[in-house]
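Researcher: Go.
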Amino acid sequence: MQNTSTMASSTIEKLPSLISLFLLAVLNSSDHVSSNYSDEETQALLKWKASLHYHNHSSLPSWTLYPNNIANSSAPHGSGPIPPEIGNLKSLQSDLSELSLLHLYTNQLSGPIPKEIGKLKSLSDLVLSENRLNGSIPASLCNLTNIETLLLRVNQLFGYIPEEIGKLHKLVVIEIDTNKLSDSLPEGICRGGSLVRLTVSDNNLSGPIPKRLKNCKSLTRALFQGNQLTGNISEVVGDCPNLEYIDLSYNRFHGELSHNWGRCPRLQRLEIVGNKITGNMPADFGLSTNLTFLDLSSNHLVGEIPKKMGSLTSILGLILKDNQLSRSIPPELSSLSHLENLDLSSNRLNGSIPERLSDCPHLYYLNLSYNKLSGRIPIQIIKLSHLSELDLSHNSLSGKISPQIQGLQSLENLNLSHNNLSGFIPEAFEDMRGLWDVDSKAFRDATIEKLKGNKGLCGNVKGLQPCKTQYSITMNNQQKRDTKFCL
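Model: Structure:
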């Protein structure tokens, strides 16, 4: 017989049955169920037991329930529906009144959530995530006035979120993402002022974010992405002094960015991808210096990138791709000493690439493609020793590729295609081992179409004219197969 504490730990982690209701069960070889339980309750338990299996697919042995004891059994996994009798075990009333945790996550449970769960009044944690549950969220769950954690994510639930959820004043965490929920968010969410984490992403929710939620002072994390939510982006947040992470991506928000984000002084991560945001990026829209990630890509932003973006000294990722931003790249971005990921691609930026971008020593991803940048590739770029991906394609860059590019020893993906580069392909490429560590046929299969705009280049590459100087690059067949860069 296994040690009781070891079995309890395994049960908490994996057991999706009535055993995992922490009703302290014994599993042994007898078929006896205590006579203290009614026939109806016994049948309910046996019905549930019948749906359980060991991970080795053998049947679960017969079992006897005793209070305050757990004996040996390999942890089973569950399938089938949750029996509605779960909330009607009157003979177990003394135990159920103490039931605080119900964790049935990551199984194959199906069918609706029984409304009878709403009778388990002592529950503080209800975790039914990552199953195959369907139907609507029963309004009876809103009777769980002690609930603090409600996780129903990654199921097939549909219908609306009950308005009565506002009665759950102790709620700290709600995760109901990746379902098929529709209609609007209930106005009462965060009525109790305890809500810290809210995840409703990847549903079919519509309408605006409720006013009470906009001003939820306890909220630290709010994920709304992948819905059909609407409203003016300048009014999405109110007074949220503790908000650290918000994702509003892939909704239908409109309007212009404003300084309201200054009302979220602890904000670290802001994502508003794929909406209908228009207008200029304000010179100062109040973003905190604590910000580590900003993604405003795939909107309709115009005008220049504000110089004050250079004051976001904690930022690691700045993604502004697929907008209509114009003018030059502000050299003030070089002040972002912790920056790792910079993507300004698919805009209308012009001018030269700032030499001072080399002052971002941790930069590993730099994408400036599909703009109108001109001038030479700055030689200072070789100082970016951690750079693994560099895409400068589809611009109007000119001049020669410096042999000193060999300084980028971490580079794995390089795309300089569709520019006005000239001269020979540097022999230095032969010494850039990082480029040969990935599977690519960029040199071998290069075509005139891929090299369009770089007609001045020469080298031993299909589609290029041969060089007439002693610097013509020579590469063996293995190197041709493994090189990963496009010119």
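Model: Helices lie at 4-14, 39-50, 93-96, 211-214, 477-482.
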